[in-house]
Amino acid sequence: MLIDADNPLVLGSGSPRRREIISALGLPFTVLAADIDESRRPGEPPLAYLERITEGKLAAVRARLGSAAHAAILVADTSVVIDDDVLGKPADVADAARLFGRLVGRVHSVHTRYAIGRADNGAQIARTLETHVHMREATQAEIEAYAATGEGLDKAGAYAAQGIGAFFVERIVGSYSNVIGLPACELLADLRALGLVDAVPFRALQAPV
């Protein structure tokens, strides 16, 4: 079953960045954000945490969908990890400055795990990607000024590599789109592997003849 207007992809995420990546493929999709407890358990390793949360999101979206027509469900979760700590979204501007201050002048990892589940036969693919982000040194004044922009208040690690935060990013090793929430290259390969998209799914983006 291909993803089409009658059987769309269901994106189990409210992330605008993930919506943009799916939109770029020109695929019909609907959004049904998963509503689960995303608290990390004491001592839970970062990758085990991601696996548990992604599985929980997929199950939650499936339960909410019921018999509604769809081709597949896509869920994802992204973690910013440094010193084996998972840095979540900041509580406020002061917390954003604290979190971002841990990242500048150092290298941290961004892990995104996604899972795709077909509606018709239950076939599923799950994958975790890691990208290393090298941040430049920054003064406390810069850190506080960036936090005050509010850009990082709804983002893990309190920064956006696709926004003002790019001025702090020296180098990215690995998938850039992974850092903003969904590894586009790998996602397309897995959608193809599950038989959910045509060989060339970019028709909506092609220039008119």
Write a short abstract of this structure:
The chain is of the alpha/beta class. It has helices spanning about 15-25, 45-65, 95-105, 140-150, 175-180, 185-195; strands spanning about 10, 30, 70-80, 85, 105-120, 125-135, 170-175.
Verbal overview:
- By secondary structure, this protein is α/β, with parallel strands linked by helices.
- The chain has a single domain (9-205), classed as Maf protein (Alpha-Beta Complex), CATH 3.90.950.10.
- It contains 6 helices and 7 strands.
- Strands 1, 2, 3, 4, 5, 6 and 7 form a 7-stranded mixed beta sheet that branches.
- Strand 5 (107-118) and strand 6 form a beta hairpin.
- The radius of gyration is 18 Å and the shape is elongated.
- The model has no long low-confidence stretch (mean pLDDT 93).
Brief descriptors of the model:
seven-stranded mixed β-sheet, Maf protein, alpha/beta, 209 residues
Q: What is the secondary structure topology, with strand pairs?
A:
Elements: E1 9-11, H1 16-24, E2 29-31, H2 46-65, E3 72-82, E4 85-87, H3 93-103, E5 107-118, E6 124-135, H4 140-148, E7 169-173, H5 176-179, H6 184-193
Parallel strand pairs: 1-2, 1-3
Antiparallel strand pairs: 3-4, 3-5, 5-6, 6-7
